[in-house]
């Protein structure tokens, strides 16, 4: 896998999402729960806007000084016995991780949930060198067994129902109990416990790395990240380079924003902060530790008008309020990162060519911007993307560009404008019924395929205005 | 240990920021707001215990309260409630102060197996934790707002004790309770500034493990403990 998922076109992906009744209902109900959980937290605090302001200030300061903080972080990890590898590209990151796996002669790798490893396609790279990679987050494990990509950052298997999960467990793992979620989870616990115990290497992502001490912090509810950092003797953490915080004091704020905005919890069941290798006398935790810091397109977002997109803490609050995501689901975005933040980030990381439709997968209602706990102006960035796609990248079809040119000419000539508005009603007559156009001709089809177009008014505004000025009836 | 590719990587980052590389002298600014300090501020220690107790219901955690003399009895009743046969516990210096050595001896006399974490046993510790029914540790800092016990894992308090057994008991000295995460991170930050190395693993644990990955149904008990009891001890 890489950041781009599959080869289906945007229209095909959207159609598939819109026609998946179960998925749409599941997504709508998940969005509802996540949103009300977050709202309850905001109400309880009473000063949520202050928290957001603080979150934004911390992220802005950190990204503006990211070279300093990454240097400090890597110095501290190294002091605590860890190796640090800076990877400019996905390939460099995967090569290094492959090298560690080969050096350890590792047969089995157990992973806790990590978006950046999805982004760089790490699992495939490890399978290439013969390692068996096991996802240990319940949702991710279900998807791995079913060879299906995640569709939500926080709830990756939100598009699956329990019958499908049961079927997958039965087919792939010989499960023979009911489709009760508790029974399914208990089966996963037993199966995955054996995987943890026999794993040679544990791989985790990183929610936040604390520069002042070199601590990599993992936020989970299931406890799988704790397992992956407790049992195997070798551990690798992979982090997007922007996930650094200056000190533990800022970690407090960002973790608090993350758990509240993501799932409406004061804190998740586990927040685990790992620093380097185990110390003298300790008998669990890794004796060999590696931190891989990944750029993969992030640095070129720095210094641009999109820099604040790197402030994202991956809480999915924007996804949980998005009306477009609600209808098309996560897979329609064709990216590891779905929803509003995905539509902003994916073209920045992977170029416009494969993702030029994503900035249009938005109604620009601005709910995402309002939901973001670190105040990323998401919908404004989507508008900027659209401008760039049209004006700099010239990615719109030739016919559309010609039409726009024609429109500009026509719209700037008062005589042409006057004549065509006067004629519009009779020109549209053949397609008009009950004052609406339901099946418009030519370019209007693109509109009327989804909604009706109002028939041009009987009287133009200009002639109405003229009459009114003369004192006529308005 | 080694740091690889750092110079080229950070020089590229700096080039994109259109300024010279910053290697020192960066200070955190004074933030315009500090909402975290207001949460549960001014509450007495007993009021914080009440907040903690209320939150335990939210995080599916059993709450009990006792004093030092009553601790052994409460522990015994809790272990029995879990039908625990094998116990793994931290060899915390506080065990002596709270009379736990006598307690562990007494339940061993009753036929239970008790393993206190022992660095000399190496990986054997984890093997016991894997088959143990109950793990017992002290809380180092307790967060009232979120119902969190903070564990500085070390050679006395292995990571596996609070993680691998099906049931987990946290002994919470009342004096360890603070309003929220803010006070814990501040303490860690200040110790780090003073030159004390932070623990190789700091675990913030809030109740049993859980997941909502199947149809958004909350399932309590996934990879970590399925049942958790907090025992607050007036100290």
Walk me through the structure.
The complex is a heterodimer of chains A (474) and B (235). Chain A has 474 residues and is of the alpha/beta class. Chain A folds into 2 domains: 22-300, NagB/RpiA/CoA transferase-like (Rossmann fold), CATH 3.40.50; 398-469, no CATH class. Chain A is built from 21 helices and 13 strands. Chain A has helices at residues 10-18, 21-45, 48-64, 66-79, 90-103, 115-120, 122-128, 138-146, 162-173, 181-198, 224-230, 248-263, 317-321, 323-328, 339-350, 367-371, 378-392, 398-411, 414-428, 445-448, 461-469, and strands spanning 82-87, 108-111, 132-135, 201-204, 208-210, 215-220, 234-240, 244-245, 270-275, 288-294, 432-433, 436-437, 453-454. In chain A, the strands form 3 sheets. In chain A, strands 1-10-7-4-2-3 form a 6-stranded parallel β-sheet, sandwiched between helices. Chain B has a single domain (42-234), classed as NagB/RpiA/CoA transferase-like (Rossmann fold), CATH 3.40.50. In chain B, strands 2-13-8-5-3-4 form a 6-stranded parallel β-sheet, sandwiched between helices. A 4-stranded mixed β-sheet of chain B has the order 9-6-7-10, sandwiched between helices. Chain B has a two-stranded antiparallel ribbon with strand order 11-12. With 235 residues, chain B is α/β, with parallel strands linked by helices. In chain B, strand 11 (210-211) and strand 12 (219-220) form a beta hairpin. Chain B has helices at residues 6-16, 45-58, 68-81, 94-97, 100-109, 124-131, 181-193; strands at 3-4, 62-67, 86-89, 113-116, 134-138, 141-143, 148-153, 167-173, 177-178, 201-205, 210-211, 219-220, 227-234. Strand 9 of chain A pairs antiparallel with strand 10 (201-205) of chain B.
Question: How many beta-strand elements of chain A?
Answer: 13
The dominant shape of chain B is globular
Kindly report the spatial arrangement of strands forming the biggest sheet of chain A. 1-10-7-4-2-3
> Which stretches of chain B of 5+ consecutive residues score pLDDT under 50?
none
User: What is the first-to-last residue Cα distance of chain B?
Assistant: 43 Å
What would CATH call the class of the largest domain in chain A? Alpha Beta
Total number of distinct structural domains of chain A: 2
Tell me the count of domains of chain B: 1
Give the integer mean of the pLDDT values of chain A.
Answer: 94
Neighbour order of strands in the largest sheet of chain B:
2-13-8-5-3-4
Task: Tell me the CATH superfamily of chain B.
Answer: NagB/RpiA/CoA transferase-like
Distance between the ends of chain A: 63 Å
Largest beta sheet of chain A, briefly? 6 strands, parallel
User: In CATH's first tier, which class of chain B applies?
Assistant: Alpha Beta
The appropriate CATH architecture of the largest domain in chain A is: 3-Layer(aba) Sandwich
The amount of beta strand of chain B, in percent, is: 15-25%
CATH architectural type of chain B: 3-Layer(aba) Sandwich
